[in-house]
Design brief:
- There is one protein chain.
- With 327 residues, the chain is α+β, with helices and mostly antiparallel strands.
- 23% of the residues lie in helices and 32% in strands.
- It has 8 helices and 23 strands.
- The strands form 5 sheets. It has a 6-stranded antiparallel β-sheet with strand order 18-19-20-23-21-22, with no helix packed on it. A 5-stranded antiparallel β-sheet has the order 5-6-7-8-9, with helices on one face. Strands 10-13-14-15-17 form a 5-stranded mixed β-sheet.
Length: 327
C-alpha cells in the first residue's frame, strides 16, 4: 500500500509498504488497513491533535514538518461489513480536507463539530462561516429554516446532489456504479447501493460522505435531527456526530439511538451524560453496546429480539448485543 495523506496544510504522512514516514521520522513495518484502523507492524496508528508529533504508533511518535494543528478523519464511523473501506475512505477524505475541498469541510463540521453549529444547538447568535461559506451555509440555513428564509446556493449539479439540494428525479440521474453515484444514492435513501463492490480509488472518500449524508445530521436549536433510515440496510451504525458518539441500531424492526447529545429521531432514543467508543464497542451511560455485561436483571437486545431478565454472557455470534440494566 502506497499512499500520501496531507494531515495539515504543510505536512503529509507517507504510508508505504515498508513503513510510515512523517518528515524525517520513520517507523518501519508492514502497513495494513483493517476494519478498526491502520496498523504498522501489528501496532495501531493513532492520530493526535498535537502541533509537533501528530502521529503515534505503539510507543513511537512521528514528528516533522511545520508546527500545525492536524485535521483528520479517523475511526469516525463503524458499520458491519464496511470497516476496511471506511478506514480507506477516511484517509482519502483527510487528504481532501487539508487540500481545501469545501465538501470535505462540510463533512468535517458534521463529524467533528464547528462553532457555528454549536451556536445553533445552544440557541445563541450564529455567525455564518466565511471559509467555504456557500457550502457550510447550507448547514446554517437548514438549522435555522424556521426563522430564516432558505435560498439554495448556486452550486454545480454533483455538489447539489451530495448536499441534498436537487429534487429526487434530478438526483437519480447521478446514481450509477461509482463512488459519486453511491454517495448520491445514500443521500436520497437508496441504501442498497452499499452492496456495490467498487474499485479502491481516491474517490472512495465519498463513501464516508455518503454515510453522513444518509444519517443527515441537521443541527437545530436545542438538538440534532438524525435520519436512521440507513438501518434498513445495516443492523447498526456507530458514528461521531459533532465530536460526540452516536450509536444507532435495529431491534426487531424498531430503530433506536443512544448518545450524549439531544437527538430527534424516528424511534427510541437514549440520552446519557457521557458516551465513549473503542471501535464499535461503546458505553453510553448505562447502555453497553457490543459489550456483554452479566446482570441479575437487565435488558438484552440484538437485531431480532429483546429479552428482559437475568443476563448471562455467551458467544452467540450475533451482529451485535446491547445490554442495559432494568429500570
Amino acid at each position: 500500500m502506497d499512499l500520501v495523506v496531507r494531515i495539515s496544510r504543510g505536512r503529509a504522512l507517507e504510508l508505504r509498504g515498508g513503513g510510515v514516514r512523517l518528515g524525517s521520522s520513520f517507523v518501519p513495518g508492514e502497513v495494513e488497513v483493517r476494519w478498526d484502523g491502520v496498523y504498522v507492524g501489528g501496532r495501531l496508528l493513532v492520530f493526535r491533535r498535537a502541533l509537533k508529533c501528530p502521529v503515534k504508533i505503539g510507543g513511537a511518535y512521528l514528528c516533522g514538518g511545520p508546527a500545525e494543528v492536524p485535521r483528520f478523519f479517523y475511526r469516525e464511523v463503524f458499520a458491519e461489513g464496511l470497516g476496511e473501506r471506511l478506514r480507506l475512505a477516511e484517509l482519502f477524505a483527510t487528504d481532501r480536507l487539508n487540500g481545501g475541498d469545501c465538501l470535505a469541510e462540510y463533512l468535517y463540521a458534521l463529524a467533528r463539530g464547528a462553532p457555528f453549529l454549536w451556536s445553533i444547538y445552544r440557541r445563541g447568535p450564529v455567525e455564518r462561516p466565511r471559509r467555504c461559506g456557500e457550502v457550510l451555509g447550507v448547514l446554517v440555513s437548514r438549522g435555522l429554516r424556521e426563522r430564516v428564509a432558505y435560498e439554495p446556493p448556486p452550486l454545480g449539479r454533483a455538489a447539489g446532489a451530495l448536499l441534498g439540494l436537487l429534487r429526487f428525479p434530478e438526483a437519480l440521474g447521478l446514481v450509477e456504479r461509482s463512488w459519486l453515484g453511491l454517495a448520491v444514492a445514500l443521500r436520497y435513501g437508496i441504501y442498497g447501493a452499499l452492496r456495490w463492490d467498487l474499485p479502491r480509488s481516491p474517490d472512495m472518500w465519498l463513501l464516508l460522505f455518503g454515510m453522513y449524508a444518509a444519517l443527515d445530521p441537521v443541527v437545530v436549536p436545542g438538538g440534532v435531527a438524525l435520519d436512521l433510515g440507513l438501518l434498513r440496510a445495516l443492523p447498526y451504525i456507530v458514528a461521531r456526530v459533532l465530536g460526540r458518539w452516536v450509536v444507532a441500531f435495529n431491534v426487531a424492526g424498531l430503530r433506536m439511538a443512544a448518545g450524549n447529545i439531544n437527538m430527534m429521531v424516528d424511534g427510541g432514543r437514549r440520552r446519557a451524560r457521557y458516551a465513549s467508543c473503542d471501535g464499535d464497542r461503546c458505553v453510553v451511560g448505562d447502555l453497553h453496546f457490543n459489550i456483554c455485561v452479566e446482570l441479575e436483571c437487565g435488558v438484552f437486545r440484538t437485531w431480532d429480539f429483546e429479552f428482559k431478565g437475568p443476563v448471562k454472557c455467551r458467544d452467540l455470534g450475533l451482529p451485535y448485543v446491547a445490554v442495559e440494566p432494568c429500570k
